[in-house]
Design a protein that fits this description.
Layout lengths: L5 E9 L8 H4 L2 H14 L4 E7 L10 E4 L3 E3 L5 H12 L12
Parallel strand pairs: 1-2
Antiparallel strand pairs: 1-3, 3-4
Helix pairs in contact: 2-3
Length: about 100
Amino acid sequence: MKKPMYHILVCNSYRVAGDAMGVCNKKGTSAFLQYIVDEASDRGLDVTVTSTACLNVCHQGPIMVIHPNNFWYGGVEAESVIDEILDALEEDSLCEKYAITD
């Protein structure tokens, strides 16, 4: 299997018991998953997108993380935010407007 250039993690607030119950899920991150996949593909970005368990920065959610760059983003609540983040990713750079440090 060929490894993708980027792995995008999207917090969906899953807990150990399997229930999605946190901030990110309540703010609709599951609805963004297909948008991220489609938009990245349209841009020619080599990515894999994964929905995750809670990433423990709920006060800044919804959260999206891009590896291997280790870019953490908060407030990812709209397609326009995702577009800005992917614009920066096309340049392999951080979108500072939504970057979080904790």
